[in-house]
Amino acid sequence: MSSEEITFLPRIAEEKKKLGNEQYKAKNYQSALKFYSDAISLCPDSSTYYGNRAATYMMMSNYTNALNDARTAVRLDPNFEKAYVRIAKCCVAKGDIIGIEQAIKKIEELDPQSNAVEGEKQTLQQLRQLEQTIQNNYDSKYYRNVVYYLDAAIKLAPACYRYRLLKAECLAFLGRCDEAVDIAISVIKLDSTSADAIYVRGLCFYYTDNLEKGIKHFELALQLDPDHKKAKEMRTKSKTLKDMKEKGNVLFKSGRYREAQTIYTDALKIDELNKEINSKLLYNRALVNSKIGNTRDAIVDCTNVLDINAQYLKALLLRARCHNDIEKYEESVSDYEAALQLQKTPEIKKLLRDAKFALKKSKRKDYYKILGIPRNASDDEIKKAYRKKALVHHPDRHANSSLDERKEQELKFKEVGEAYAILSDPRKKVRYDNDQDIEDQEQPDFDPNQMFRHFFQFSGGPSGASFGFEF
């Protein structure tokens, strides 16, 4: 380089710096950046130019480049206090506690009376406390609390990828995968080699029941960082869960229900936070339980599925059927009504009609049971049964009993009369046997005492006596 160039280039560089300063003051940071970069290319050994460009990057929230320039500035001039201040500020923004401590220590060595980083000292203390609180809550799996305290930390350190990705991880644990994905992708766009961001992306696939893609992302994270402990754990967990889920399904399809039940139960223990997969495992186990006669357990499993996802139609329909099987008809109707709200199909409408019919039928009196006879009883057996039951429950027989006992026997006497009124009438009996009376719920209009007198008048009273008999 000629002597002319040696004196000429610094002058040009200074002109560039002045133009950069003007643009910086006018808040035209992109233009300022260009002028400072021009100055640096002309005089690459000037700590001032790097310091100015670092300040510009900071105003543009590009703390990574700002930190690089500030560190270059102090390498060129180890006594450049203002550059150390910028290092401290950048480290705060990036959540680098060790970097903040080192910069503050250097500033105090250069000027023990300096108060240039008083704010950063306070922020350093806040970040230390927050990180301890965050770690304690993370270890205790209080992920909502972790997110809350991370939000406070991110306000102090907006460029800290570590905080943002830890928040994304906890959001995934909480089932808020859409939010977690947005954070992970935003970091990957800035740093495609971030193992933590790729791990979080895999976590989101895992928690939305895309185990294959989850495993691929965990493996990619391990390629970038072979010692990534969380990615290792999640890869193992994902593969185990995938294998057990597939094995359970094969056993179910082959009719080996009890073995499938064991596999599904073991799979449910792997990760209680994976609600998406667990809801499917619970539904599959409910199906198995319904197949092997564990109807009440099937209902419990379906209820747990619906606690996770109230829109899980298959679980709602299965629970409705199971409720019907154990004669909980009102619950069955309620479930079918909820299912119809989710999907208005002819099949579900028919199931609801049938459930309502079963409910009405369940509320109808069982006249055969009241008389203590089978449904195929002959007319003679019906008469004999009525004679026996009517004599047992006749009010006169209980005249000396307590008031409550008399009322109870009167009610039974009336029910026996109702039963006989229906089953002794061929037309009414056919309607009853064919469930044709359920919709109108026809009630016999009769006087049980008159029926009793009529019956014994024509069939012969007890011991051939008139109605005023003795018991």
Features of this protein?
TPR_rpt; TPR repeat; repeat; TPR_2; Serine Threonine Protein Phosphatase 5, Tetratricopeptide repeat; 471 residues; mainly alpha; TPR-like_helical_dom_sf; disordered C terminus
Characterize the structure shown:
- Keywords: Repeat, TPR repeat.
- Pfam families: DnaJ, TPR_2, TPR_8.
- It is a single chain.
- The protein folds into four domains: 4-125, Serine Threonine Protein Phosphatase 5, Tetratricopeptide repeat, CATH 1.25.40; 160-239, Alpha Horseshoe (Serine Threonine Protein Phosphatase 5, Tetratricopeptide repeat); 255-363, Alpha Horseshoe (Serine Threonine Protein Phosphatase 5, Tetratricopeptide repeat); 367-437, DnaJ domain (Helix Hairpins).
- The protein has helices at residues 3-25, 29-42, 47-59, 63-76, 81-93, 97-110, 118-139, 143-156, 161-173, 177-190, 195-207, 211-224, 229-253, 257-268, 275-291, 295-308, 313-325, 329-342, 346-363, 367-371, 379-393, 403-423, 426-433, 448-459.
- It is mainly α.
- Helix 1 (3-25) runs antiparallel to helix 2 (29-42), helix 9 (161-173) runs antiparallel to helix 10 and helix 15 (275-291) runs parallel beside helix 17 (313-325).
- The protein is 75% helix and 0% strand.
